[in-house]
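Quarterly update from the structural biology core.
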Amino acid sequence: MEKGLAINTVEAYGRDLAKFAAFLVRSRVTVEACGIAGVRSFLGFLEESGLDNRTVARQIVSLRQFYLHLQREGIVTNNPTENIQSPRGWKILPKHLSVAEVATLLQVADRKTPEGLRNRATIELLYGSGLRVSELINLKVADLDLNSGCIRATGKGNKQRIIPMGKPAGDAVEKYQAEGRDHLRKGKQAPWLLLSTRGNRMTRQAVWITLTRAGKLAGITIPVTPHLLRHSFATHMLAGGADLRSLQMMLGHADITTTQIYTHVVTDRLQEIYKQHHPRA
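Predicted structure, tokenized:
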């Protein structure tokens, strides 16, 4: 609560600490007695379990914050994670769909049923605005302004931002609200935009299932996930000439270095810019 962390982050830290607790029980060591050697032994156990460097790095962050809390509470005097460096992970280039694949994905949604209209709006919003799945399912009807084509999204740390919404996405949402949402609402006073067949807020799992099914129907060979559509949004924006700073604001990245990873997948665009602007190109 003090740090304003997202629920998903808190749950991830909880899972990390549960692993650490189980390790201490097996080792018959208390939290207070676990020094730097014990922490290193735990991290070595994680690496032997096949976890990648990024996961181990997050585990170190979890432990470091945990021991800082214990220090503030006077439970321990030293932080055994203080001098432990996080492993450096390889940068993984994000996968993305082509524009043609996205078009095919949108075509497979059934526009004659309330669920189909909702699914079409779901895909349009994810691809058209680059939303995270957590931001998507928490969207309320009041967060959309169809006249101006803007969305108010609440991201990590409860930070809000305004994102433009393309006309196809706006049209899909408007059609869903007019012809599908009331049927799904089941008479409930639900504030959320995307509803389940029981009139409740659509879950993350339901979004994943929807995209997986749509991907198979569209004949797309790689798994279609919410983050794949977010990556596709960012990649296509950069390829179309969007500047990195604007893209950072739309994606809700706290650090522009997170956004810079997308420059590695638009080499054609970079070569074009180089040829246009470098004096000896």
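DSSP finds 13 helices and three strands in the chain.
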